[in-house]
């Protein structure tokens, strides 16, 4: 499975590219933060398991029904002409959740269709030994991109 930094950074990078090259300033920085949160949201069971081990287990939130509910919420919020921030937020939660599933799927995945099916339909494309290197490489590339692309030189 992909590690936390990869989940967060892939979501942040894709949302940043969308903001920088397509949506521009109509897509606030808050949505990039929300995408980062959504990209890691299915792994919320890790800290929950530490706090309440009798109620949570790893993989518990890796079920397809959660992003489907987010998608339905997005469509309903859009259809009922709510403020843009509501359906956009729900859409970003859908995006981040599905992105998390795709990354985990590349690492072997879970039984996303439980309890309907206990089959794991994911191919093991990237084994566990490569994820730390992917984490480190993505972090360095993102820092370089932010350094030159968004002028965060004052931070360094
Ligand atoms: Zn996961």
Task: Name every ligand kind in the structure.
Answer: zinc ion
Biggest β-sheet: count, sense, barrel? none
H/E element order: HHHHHH
Structural class: mainly alpha
Strand content: under 5%
Give the CA-CA distance, first to last residue. 32 Å
> Uncertain regions: pLDDT < 50 for 5+ in a row?
none
Mean pLDDT: 93
Number of helices: 6
Helix content: 55-70%
State Rg: 17 Å
Describe what this molecule looks like in 3D.
- It is a single chain.
- By secondary structure, the protein is mainly alpha-helical.
- Helices cover 62% and strands 0% of the residues.
- The chain is built from 6 helices and no strands.
- It has helices at residues 4-23, 29-40, 45-51, 65-79, 84-106, 131-149.
- The longest helix has 23 residues, at 84-106.
- It starts with a helix and ends in a 7-residue tail after the last helix.
- The mean pLDDT is 93.
- Bound molecules: zinc ion.
- Zinc ion binds at residues 1, 42-43, 62, 100, 104.
Brief rundown of the structure:
By secondary structure, the chain is mostly helical.
Keywords:
156 residues; mainly alpha; 62% helix; globular; binds zinc ion
Helix-strand layout with pairing:
Blueprint: H1 4-23, H2 29-40, H3 45-51, H4 65-79, H5 84-106, H6 131-149
The structure holds zinc ion.
């Amino acid at each position: 499975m992909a590690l936390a930094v990869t989940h967060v950074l892939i979501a942040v990078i894709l949302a940043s590219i969308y903001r920088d090259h397509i949506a521009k300033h109509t897509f606030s920085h808050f949505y990039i933060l929300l995408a980062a949160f959504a990209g890691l949201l299915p792994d919320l069971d890790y800290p929950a398991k530490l706090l309440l081990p009798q109620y949570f287990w790893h993989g518990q939130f890796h079920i397809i029904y959660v992003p489907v509910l987010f998608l339905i919420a997005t469509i309903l919020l859009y259809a009922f002409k709510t403020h843009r921030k509501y359906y956009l937020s729900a859409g970003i939660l859908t995006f981040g959740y599905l992105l998390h599933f795709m990354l985990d799927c590349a690492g072997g995945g879970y039984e996303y269709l439980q309890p309907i099916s206990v089959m794991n339909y994911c191919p093991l494309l990237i084994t566990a030994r490569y994820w730390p290197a992917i984490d480190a490489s993505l972090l360095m590339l993102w820092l370089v991109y932010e350094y030159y692309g968004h002028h965060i030189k004052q931070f360094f």
